[in-house]
Amino acid sequence: MKQERLMNVLLEPRITEKSTLVGEKFRQFVFKVARSASKPDIKQAVELMFEVEVESVQVSNVNGKRKTFGRRPGKRSGWKKAYVKLKSGFDIDYLGPQ
Fold it and tell me: What would the pLDDT profile of 79-91 be if each residue is shown by its tens digit?
């Protein structure tokens, strides 16, 4: 797969309380990914961008919430979440070298 496409697969890391607990317990990192991304695409993108080796990838589709905007009912758009488990000895540092 082309590097330009892989650079657009990972949209943002999800740094929440739940993702921090999952990371500490299972060595997993959580990312918001493109809706068209597949597991092999996500694996290649993480390995390319962070120079690590990925053991497994789990994907979850998150449905958008129903909300009211003023008086009008509406719906937020859904998105895709990826749980990436790294092989032992590897780690992702979001801040980069310091």
Answer: 999 999 999 988 8
Q: Phi and psi (nearest 5°) for 29?
A: -125, 145
At residue 1, the pLDDT reads 62
Could you give the domains of the chain? 3-65+75-86 (3.30.70.330)
pLDDT at residue number 91:
86
Burial of 19 (0-12, 13-18, 19+ CB in 10 A): middle
3-state secondary structure the chain: CCHHHHHCCEEEECCCHHHHHHHHHHCEEEEEECCCCCHHHHHHHHHHHHCCCEEEEEEEEECCCEEEECCEEEECCCEEEEEEEECCCCCCCCCCCC
Whether residue 67 contacts residue 74, with contact meaning beta carbons closer than 8 Å, is answered with yes
Q: Cα 33 to the chain's mean position, in Å?
A: 5
Cβ(80)–Cβ(58) under 8 Å?
no
